[in-house]
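hiii so my PI (J.) wants the whole complex modelled not just the main chain, which honestly fair. so below is everything: two entries, each one labled with what it is. i double checked the lines twice but i was tired so who knows lol
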Amino acid sequence: MVTLGDYLIVSGILFAIGFAGVMLRRNLIIIFMSLELMLNAANLSLVAFSRFHVQPNGLPNYNAQVFVFFIITVAAAEVAVGLAIIVALFRARQTTNVEDITSLKF
Amino acid sequence: MPPFLFWIFALLMLVFGAAVVINRNPIASALNLVVSFLGLAALFMSLDAFFVGIIQVLIYAGAIMVLFLFIIMLLDLRAEKLRKINWLASAGGIAVALVLLTQILYVIGNLKAAQQTFPPLARSTIDDVRNVGLVLFGNYNLPFQIIGILVLVATIGIVLLSRRELR
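here's the output for the full assembly
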């Protein structure tokens, strides 16, 4: 049988993949996609805990699923604003590589 | 859901998730991310969270990834392929990610509840959307309205950012 730990391990590996993407890649858009991977890893463990904590009436705990709904909504807003910023940046600098955008560096 | 289906979808999600990071072509990365999200939606459905699985497909694999592909094709990011890889920085990044993964696995290994299987539900078919909606519009009514304001602010922000005379 599949245990809660299996879902949590899969979620942890997915989070680590997203984190590695943020650390390794130098392209802003790929970094953004890796952020989405990390958000989804958190969603997976939330839904796993929602199914694990079955309430006395025999239903899953829906608080976690509402939380996942909020996360998806905020992620959608974040992606829209972030991509608009990337397009504005590209218009000004003609690049999406983080190594070329170092104006705030000492 | 039978265990082998769980492992197939989990493996699908992880392999295509890793392909997002490994691929050098941004369009291929975005398409890999779509497949990864579809695998994740299947995992949500295996946890009896049908509503969350459906909005994962509709919003993530549908709307957000189309936005990503649209921007990637608009910006025409072919020059990125020619850059050479900084191997020292890559090794450092992989090492930090592996340390994080080890910590996560250690915490999960020490969690008592992680060994248990999922308790059965009262019925095999649950009207998921209705239950989520009841909680969403009952207990979480104020946060829901705040989220609405957030989306409105994001929309206005995008319009402001996209203006031509932005300095």
